[in-house]
Amino acid sequence: MALAAEKAYEVVRTAILDGSYPPGERLGEVELAEALGISRTPIREALRRLEVEGLVEVLPHRGARVTSWSHEDLDEIYELRILLESFAAARAASRISDGELGRMDELRQDMARAVHSGDVERIAACNAEFHGIIRRAASSTRLVTMLNAVIQLPLVLQTFHRYTHEDLQRSVAHHSELVHAFRARDPAWAESVMRSHVLAARRVLAGRSRDEE
Amino acid sequence: MALAAEKAYEVVRTAILDGSYPPGERLGEVELAEALGISRTPIREALRRLEVEGLVEVLPHRGARVTSWSHEDLDEIYELRILLESFAAARAASRISDGELGRMDELRQDMARAVHSGDVERIAACNAEFHGIIRRAASSTRLVTMLNAVIQLPLVLQTFHRYTHEDLQRSVAHHSELVHAFRARDPAWAESVMRSHVLAARRVLAGRSRDEE
DNA sequence: GGACTCTAATTTGCATACAAAAGATCGGTA
DNA sequence: TACCGATCTTTTGTATGCAAATTAGAGTCC
């Protein structure tokens, strides 16, 4: 084990994101410390980090809880995600390398095949790497930090399980169009496609019932 | 003193922002602990918070240093600031209360007088409260967190000392136009004016020498 | 003279111990 | 029975001590 505090951060963060610790769950320091076999000191540092990143709320003398998101929070988060992801796409368009473009094209094909065969795990993996490349190509550490804060919640829910086949095909089409926009080194195009992409994702997540909002 | 960790955070943050700890300065834990009369434990928690917020960099087993910003960092930060502040203005336009609007108008007048009399301290104070109201009216905790991360650096430099009289008058004019846009509850107008406002600020900070870039 | 190595000193990372605050439990009173 | 208060328990906040890692420096060899 490298650093205990780092380990604690990773473990708790992962547990929150994959739903092992549901929203509202109490995170006792001793409890976590014993579970990880370390002392409370590094646990506290990990919880402070998670607090700043918005994953946990901690009240003085009362301990930490997993943040629970209201409906308004979710809307707010998606608005920010739309803003930041499309901005990242625009920046990436004028900075992305040919190597990264090649990899993105591979991922796009992989994902199309995964959609065809219904392999949800693989879809998620391809999607994650695809978007990861774009964010890195935006080459702004601060932007990446902000995006992480805003992507975390969707991660919890974005299992692709509620995507219909049509939704998935549209998603693949967006990826394809993004690759073209990047090849053309066209920031405005990339930004616009990315906006559509995230808006579509929000609509899927919001559920069909709210289509008319 | 309420909580030692909170106190340490406030003290160190303020010292960084007002320049007492210049970029690159080493922040030893024992040194800070003795200076504040507390132990290293709360100091460490404060440093972790500052790390996530981007104000300090900490390397494993090597301690913390005040972040030093490259020229590219500064550009990157201003791009994000433009994005986020104008977004906040748009949100605020449809949410701001009449009371807040009234206070903003007072501040606008105050600031105009301060510009006339050359009171730089007062200009800065009015400006800070004016923009604070807008950010609060945007009513997005996450957005506020992000803006703080992006406004911190400008805070270090934005002393208004390098503003010419013309720059200051333009700034006041922007504030005046913002009040009108908010009164009209016009998000697009508010967003656009805010974008101009921040772009102008960047140009002042960048220095006249780079006008042709 | 310069580079390398081994050692000593400083500093961070973590664990443990203690103090203080919040929460729970039990008893008493109306 | 319902409500209030005091004590006890649990949990957080902080201090201190120790181990590991990094850095600084002296001495040595080429």
Automatic annotation (TrEMBL), chains A, B:
Residues 2-69 form the HTH gntR-type domain. It holds the Pfam family GntR. It comes from the Bacteria. SMART domains: FCD, HTH_GNTR. PROSITE patterns: HTH_GNTR. Keywords: DNA-binding, Transcription, Transcription regulation. PANTHER family: GLUCONATE OPERON TRANSCRIPTIONAL REPRESSOR, TRANSCRIPTIONAL REGULATOR, GNTR FAMILY. This is GntR family transcriptional regulator. It comes from Allokutzneria multivorans.
